[in-house]
Amino acid sequence: MKNPKVKKMSMGLxxxxxxxxYFLLGSLCAVNAAVNQDPVKxxxxxxxxxxxxxxxIGVSVVLKNASVxxxxxxxxxxxxSLSSVPANGILExxxxxxAKQEVTINGKTSIxxxxxxxxxxxxxxxxxxxxxxxxxxxxGSVASIKTDVISDIPANSVEGLLQGRAAGVQVINSSQDxxxxxxxxxxxxxxxxxxxxPLIVVDGFPLxxxxxxxxxxxxxxxxxxxxxxxxxSAIYGSRGANGVIIVTTRRAKKGTTTVSVKQQLTFxxxxxxxxxxRDPVLMAMLNNESRxxxxxxxxxxxxxxxxxxxxxxxxxxxxxxATNTRWDDLVFRNTPMSNNTTISVASSNExxxxxxxxxxxxxxxxxKDDNYTKGGYNLNVDHNIFDNFKIRASNILYLGNRDNNxxxxxxxxxxxxxxxxxxxxxxxxxxxxxxxxxxxxxxxNKTKMLDVISSAALEWQILPVLKLTSQxxxxxxxxxxxxxxxxxxxxxxxENGGRGIIGNTESQNFVSETFANYSQTxxxxxxxxxxxxxxxEWYQYRDSYLTASGFVNEALxxxxxxxxxxxxxxxxxxxxxxxxxxxxxxxxxxxxxxYLATLTFRADxxxxxxxxxxxxxxxxxxxxxxxxxEEFVKNWKVFDELKFRLSYGISGNQGISxxxxxxxxxxxxxxxxxxxxxxIGPGYVSGNTGQDGIYKVWSGIPNPDxxxxxxxxxxxxxxxxxxxxxxxTTLDVYNKETSDLLRERNLALSSGYDRMWVNxxxxxxxxxxxxxxxxxxxxxxxxxxATFIFSMNRNKVLDLGSSLESGxxxxxxxxxxxxxxxxxxxxxxxYTNILAIGQPINVFYGYKTNGIIQSLQEGLDAGxxxxxxxxxxxxxxxxxxxxxxxxxxxENDRCIIGDxxxxxxxxxxxxxxxxxxxxxxxxxxxxxxxxxxxxMFGDPHNAAFRWTPDNPTNKYPRLRSNRQxxxxxxxxxxxxxxxxxxxxxxxTFKLPKQKVFAERVRLYMNASNLYTxxxxxxxxxxxxxxxxxxxxxxxxxxxxxxxxxxx
Length: 1047
Known about the structure:
Layout: H1 4-35, E1 41-50, E2 60-63, E3 71-73, E4 79-86, E5 90-94, E6 101-104, E7 113-115, H2 119-122, E8 125-128, E9 131-134, E10 142-146, H3 158-162, E11 169-172, E12 183-186, E13 199-202, E14 205-208, E15 221-227, H4 230-233, E16 244-249, E17 257-270, H5 280-293, E18 303-304, E19 310-311, H6 314-319, H7 327-331, E20 337-348, E21 352-364, E22 370-386, E23 389-404, H8 436-442, E24 444-463, E25 466-485, H9 491-496, E26 499-522, E27 526-549, E28 570-591, E29 595-606, E30 615-626, H10 631-634, E31 641-653, E32 667-672, E33 675-680, E34 685-686, E35 709-722, E36 727-739, E37 742-746, E38 755-759, E39 762-778, E40 782-799, H11 803-806, E41 809-810, E42 817-825, E43 830-836, E44 843-846, E45 849-852, H12 856-861, E46 874-876, E47 895-898, E48 904-914, E49 917-927, E50 930-933, H13 940-943, E51 972-974, E52 977-990, E53 1000-1013, E54 1028-1029, E55 1036-1046
């Protein structure tokens, strides 16, 4: 039986609980009513002005923490008015280039505000050589790129991030292969045979050229400065002739500890369809027609050819032939992926700070079994030993692997099968080396890379105005390449009974620098800055190659090089070493924050040059005038900034291999009559043949007078800002001339040498650059920014030395002197590019055409003979009869037919923001460049439109095998294009640290190479600087999704 007292007590407790709940709910309702009671609303008005008392137009005035956006902007007189705002609310005043202010209303109906310049913005520093300056105090031409603008863009190299982001910087990304870099040029080419790549400096360490950027993880970069004119780059002397790119990596912020994770996943696809034969019948018909026109027997006639391969007839292909191999499906991946993961930890206290990031990147190429992986870490440590004594250390480790076993023969004949009945690979004949599946599975081409970059620096703040820095930098690089060519399916393997190659390269670079910086202000108007320093650099390179041939057993390939015939094995190696000793100094002077001057001097001594010219001296100077600080300019009330810059300087180039001033004897081996013979020097053979002078080894004659290339450059620029810095503009014009060009001169055979390095010739680059930055909308919730960049460069060859000594060719029609360069194109049996005095670099040289010959008589009347005069052939133009051959076309009728250098380049970036959502689009354009399209005719997409008697087109010639094609303007196309380079959309969650696991989460999507607008009749008009298009495969369109989490 239950106890009634217990029941009564329980009921009492329940009543008390219910009473407490009712009381609590009532209290909450009361509090809620009190909180939500409408506060007293008032109208607030006032005026916003700057420190000079001038009214500010367009200042944003917003009620802070309002549930519904409440705000306005100031009018032309700087006045504003806000109605129905809480009497205890807070107003937020913001304007571009001004420090944001918050003012509590406290019941006031009139609030006037004086806004000050944003000291952070105006005091933004730019890293220059051996120091930094305020951006407003720059006297040289420097472009600054902050990577927060491009952090969402997938890129396997830093060069890719630079494309279109800085005026005067041309980045050509002509290769789509995994791990490939890009060509970087600043203000055109400064050299013909020496290096044209800019110097790369990472955290004060001069690494080398742009190829050395592959070791740097793009997520570790905070900023990049591009030093373009001589006054900015001359502090690097002989290494700064091609410009300088200074990269600053991430370091920990004081008093913080953060952990961040960034993940990107990218999917790739072709941006356009492949141009392949899909219809074997049409392919066979056109092939037969081409062979008949070329005087050969048709191939597709249902019989074996001379190699014993059966080619079906057209009728068989239409009815019973079953084989139609889609080679592209077998060669290419459908949707290759790449993965980029970066994890970083940063922490800082009063004494020590560090930033450690680890990265792993994988990139699957379009070809199956074409892969690239890299991984590594970047560690930056700063430690204050004493208040005025600091040590900085950095270490970068890079490991890379490239597996490139594939082959590009995706255009292989579709009637060819993949396998024989016994499962072996089908070959058309014994010299069929284009079987892509056999090559992918049997051929080997693997590369392993290791790079270690270490730096340590001591900074001693001796006095508040004097700091001494001493730093040592070391870089070690190693690369191993393993290749094996199987006996049957490769030319090298077939001719040598299988061939294996193991190549090793090793490089070391050591740089020691010590410099002091002094800065002082006198009488409040005179500011002076002095830098003086010393640098020593040591570089060493080794390589070795082991080649084995005649493999009895191919099972292990080059993993068992001893399986090759010992008599055919070949070992070679190379070694080089160079040193550079330098002294440098810089003087900056500013008077009254209006007039600025910079003087720079550097002396370089290089072991690459002979005793007569080891040292070179590189001075520069710059002047700047901040006209907006003048009273008469202030009275105009137009400019927020108006600064003029003028500079002139000299820099050098030592971009050649060591030992060019010495007599060099080479050695090599030749396999002759069953034995290897060693050749030493020019025209001498040691061995058992007893024959001298048969084999010739390249070597060089000494030139003790060889000296530096010298580049002089002047620059005139202006920086402007309008509308409270909502619009900023930078304009530059420049003239850059390089003399004493480092070139190889051909020598007479009687000298016993091939060639000699000399200083010979002069080239010039002139240009104009413009950058416009506009803040179109800037409110609390909305934002729209735009950046437009325009660059124009004109280069010209001014001199190539004496034609008698340099072996120049003279054009008989114009008297133009030139030399041929580039590769010999078998398609035209001619070199495609020339260097001509008075012309741009790399112009195309060939014949003019005037359509297609429609009749034999028309061909004869045009001065053509034989096959060249036949209907359907190119109608070459006779432009010169001065050689006595009136009306006859010969090599003297050639002329300049194109220029691969662009007239100008542009880019446009639009960035949109709405609350935490952002989007951007980036367009990149190149205009006025000519491209030599070697695929202009004969490919599937245009072969069917060929000339025939029934289709007398004036655009395409007839199909004809064995055509003796001459290089002409028919193959030259306009390579102009505009590309949607990037399209990004992202959302950022900013979260309170105390309540969630992270303070910032960002999700984003990016599309790269979205679409290209061009009239070019090929996959992609973006080719290298020679301007030659040879096909390949289309540019890749990439789709990226990613997230970035900060803890």
